[in-house]
Amino acid sequence: MHKSDLHSYLKLAREGLVWKLDGLSEYDARRPLTPTGTNLLGLVKHLAGVEFGYFGDTFGRPHGESLPWIEEGAEVNADMWATPDESREEIVSLYRRAWAHADATIEELPLDAPGHVAWWSDDRNPVTLHRIIVHVLTETYRHAGHADIVRELIDGSVGRRKNEAMPSDDETWWRDYRDRVEQAARQAG
Questions:
Q1: If 120 and its partner were Cys, which of 61, 83, 124, 137 is the partner (CB 3.0–4.6 Å)?
Q2: What are phi and psi of 114, to 5 degrees?
Q3: Is residue 174 within a helix (H) or strand (E), and if so which, with residue range?
Q4: pTM higher than 0.85, yes or no?
């Protein structure tokens, strides 16, 4: 039960992240909206590598995918943005293949299965499948939060799907709410 709970939350986070790309132009899916270059398609590309690494390499389960952006000598942060030659479809498809590979690892191994994360220090190794699921789950939700903000900056879309669980979809309500928050910040400052 614990493994299936963790796994279902991971699946939910993945789907929410990919949904953030729906309806966007190529430019909007790729454009950096923070001083550090955070962009939606780059987050998806990054997490594809994360899942292949943690659920593949860590447990000796080769994935067979070419990930040149994480190889020795690759440009720094090359996993955090899409080149013009990398299509959205290719990156999303790669992420979905990473899901399938990770899902097979999660389904086939027990939570206490041992693994080794080559890029972690010795004091953080060995690891278990449980620890890796929790690690990837938290990293995925962290980046899904980044995606929430980036998507809102692009076109105002919020929530996991179609404004789900948001107090209102009325622009006037949100403008008034934001103004109240700004006023409170100014009064406190």
A1: 124
A2: -80, 150
A3: helix 171-188
A4: yes
